[in-house]
């Protein structure tokens, strides 16, 4: 399995106890939905593109969004310590189905961004998951434009047409297209 065929479920925070358990963060709405998890793929900080498959012996949801994991073959705290900071991945096929016009970020890369007022604008190139909010990155007139991913702005996706619909706030495109005073000085 390649990294491109997976999605990040979460990451390992720290060890828990002396017998190889780890505390993890699952970036999901309901940790209990993963109680029967059988296999997980890890990428270690030292090798962030190499997936290592691990059988899961135990998953236990904890208060505060944490999960305790016991991976087969990791039986001592010293072995578990090596997993600190590892990212947890699952195959894309394991993602739950979404309703109607909802979408996963990776599904709409390459879709055309269509604004309610301006029509087709550009193509979705990436998503940035920032602490404040997620941002859709599109290419527009040779510039990368970041669009906040909130319901009022990104309204829906049409998978059949490969289009994602937005209501851009007034002036958002101008922020990216209007040269700054520094750029104007450099051009002169």
Named at the architecture level, the CATH assignment of the largest domain is: Beta Barrel
What is the beta-strand fraction?
over 45%
Form type: elongated
User: Cα distance, first to last residue?
Assistant: 52 Å
CATH superfamily of the largest domain: RimM
| Biggest sheet strand line-up | 1-2-5-4-3-6
CATH topology of the largest domain: Elongation Factor Tu (Ef-tu), domain 3
Total count of domains = 2
Using the coordinates above, name the CATH class of the largest domain: Mainly Beta
Order of helices and strands: EEEEEHEEEEEEEHH
Main sheet properties: 6 strands, antiparallel, barrel
Poorly predicted spans: none
Structural class, by secondary structure, is mainly beta
Radius of gyration using CA atoms only: 21 Å
Number of helices: 3
Provide mean pLDDT, rounded: 89
């Amino acid at each position: 399995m390649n990294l491109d065929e997976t999605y990040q479920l979460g990451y390992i925070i720290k060890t828990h106890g002396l017998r190889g358990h780890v505390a993890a963060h699952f970036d999901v709405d309901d940790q209990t939905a993963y109680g029967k998890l059988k296999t997980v793929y890890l990428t270690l900080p030292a090798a962030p593109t190499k997936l290592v498959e691990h059988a899961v012996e135990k998953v236990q949801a904890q208060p505060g969004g944490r999960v305790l994991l016991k991976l087969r073959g990791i039986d001592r705290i010293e072995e578990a310590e090596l997993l600190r900071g590892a990212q947890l991945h699952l195959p894309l096929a394991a993602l739950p189905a979404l309703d109607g016009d909802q979408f996963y970020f990776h599904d709409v890369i390459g879709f055309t961004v269509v604004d309610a007022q301006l029509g087709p604008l550009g193509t979705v190139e990436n998503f940035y998951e920032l602490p404040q909010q997620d941002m859709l990155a599109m290419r527009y007139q040779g510039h990368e434009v970041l669009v906040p991913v909130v319901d009022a702005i990104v309204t829906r996706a049409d998978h059949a047409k490969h289009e994602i619909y937005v209501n851009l706030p007034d002036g958002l495109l101008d922020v990216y297209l209007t040269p700054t005073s520094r750029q104007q000085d450099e051009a002169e």
